[in-house]
Amino acid sequence: MSEKPWGGRFESPTNEFVEAFNASIDVDARMYAEDIAGSRAHARMLCQQGILSQEDLDAILSGLDEISGEIERGEFEFTIALEDVHMNIESRLTARIGDAGKRLHTARSRNDQVATDTRLYLRGRTDTIVAHLRKVQRVLVELADRHADTIMPGFTHLQTAQPVTLGHHLLAYVEMFERDAGRFLDARTRMNRCPLGSAALAGTTFAIDREMTAAELGFDGPTANSLDAVSDRDFIMELLAAASICAVHLSRLSEELILWMSAQFRFIDLPDAFCTGSSIMPQKKNPDMPELVRGKAGRIIGGLVAMLITVKGLPLAYNKDMQEDKGAVFDALDNLQGSLRVFGDMLPGMRVNTEIMHKAAASGFATATDLADALVRAGVPFREAHEIVGKSVAYCIREAIELHMMDAGACAAIDPRLTAAMVGALSVESCVSARNHIGGTAPAQVRAQVSAWQNRLEQL
Ligand code: ARG
Description:
Blueprint: H1 16-22, H2 25-28, H3 32-48, H4 54-72, H5 85-97, H6 99-103, H7 110-146, E1 151-156, E2 159-165, H8 166-191, H9 210-216, H10 226-231, H11 234-260, E3 268-269, H12 288-312, H13 324-346, E4 351-352, H14 354-362, H15 368-377, H16 382-399, H17 408-414, H18 420-424, H19 428-434, H20 443-459
Antiparallel strand pairs: 1-2, 3-4
Helix pairs in contact: 3-4, 3-7, 3-9, 4-5, 7-8, 7-13, 7-20, 8-11, 11-12, 11-13, 12-13, 15-16
Bound molecules: arginine.
C-alpha cells in the first residue's frame, strides 16, 4: 500500500508544497478525542451488525486506547503527509494492529467522519462557553447586588438622560448574556444529530445501525439526509452567529468600562492585574483587557462572515472548501472563551467611585423629566410641561445652577404653574426610586431582580 490511504489510483506523489497547503492537521488535531470516540462507536456498530469480527473489534478498541494514550502523553507524531486527524489516527492504528485497522473505515468516509467529529467537538465547546457565560452572569449579579442603590447618570446619545442605578445597568448585561446562553443552547440542540453512516454522500451499501452509533455518541438521533449531513455547516454558522452576538455584548460592556475608567469619567477603576502601563508615559494605566475584548469581537464576527461566504456558493455535497470551517470556528470560540474568562475574573475586582457617579447624575439636568412629570400631576398637559421645563433648563444654564436651586421668583417668571416646591422636591434618589415597576431602575426592583437571578443561576 502506498503511503497515502487514497494513493491507489495515483501515479506520482503529491507536490511538496501542496502537501503542506492541503493539510488540516494543525487545526483539526484537537479533535482527536472525538475522532477516537467516533471510531469506537463505528467499530462497535460494525461488529454488532456482523460486518466486523469480534476479534477485529477488540484489536481496534485496544489500539485506539493506546493511540489515545500516546496523544495525551505527547508521544504521537502527527504528520502533514497524512493530511488530517482522521488519517493520522487511522494510519497509526493500522501500523499498530495491522489488518483490523484497515477494516475500520468500512461503511464510513472522512466526509461523515469529519462532520461527526466537528459536531461532537463543538458540542463540548458550547457547553464550556455556556459555563463561562454563567460565571460572568453570576459576577454581574453579585455586583448589581452591591450597587442596587448606587446612582449614576443614564445616557442616551451618550448625553445625560435620567438617573439610573448601577445595579440596573449591570443587570441589563445579565439579560443579554442570558439570551446569548439561550442561543448557544438552541444551536446545540440542532447540532446534536449524528451524521455517521452518511458515508461519502449517499449512504452505504452495508446494513449499518445508525441509531446505535448516534446513541453511543450522545446524539439525539441520526441525521435524516446523508447529503445534508455531510455538506451543510449551518451548525457552525449558527454557533458563530451566537458567538458574534455574544462578542458584541461583551464589546459594548468593554466600551463602557473603558469610558468609565477615563480621567474624564472616573466612575470606575479596574484592577491592576488586568491593566497595563505605557513604556513612555509613566502615569498611564490602560484598560487593555476590555480594549482587547472589544477588538476580539471584530475577529469573531470575521469568522462568521468567512463561514457564510465559504459555504454560499458550494454545490452539494462535500467540497474541500469546507476544510476552512474549523479554523474559523475554533478561533472564534477560543477568543470568545478567553474574553468571557477575562471578564469573569476581572469584574469582581472593579472599584466603583460611587460619589463621582452620584455627582455626575446630579448634574446635567438628569431630573428634568421628573419635573415635567410633577407638572403633569398638577394638571399641566405633558407637552406644555415639557416646554416649561425646557425653559427652566435654559434659565439654569444661563445662571449656572441646577433645577432644584431655582427660587420661587424664577419659577413664577417662567410659568405660574411651576412652583419652588416642585423643583425643591427633585433629587436623583427620588427619580430612581419612583421608577418602581417591572423593568424599572428603582433599587427595590434591582433587589427583586437580583434575587430572581440568584435563584435562577443557582439552579443551573
Ligand atoms: N480534512 C477534511 C476537512 O476538514 C476532512 C474531510 C476530507 N474529505 C475529503 N473527501 N477530502 O474537511
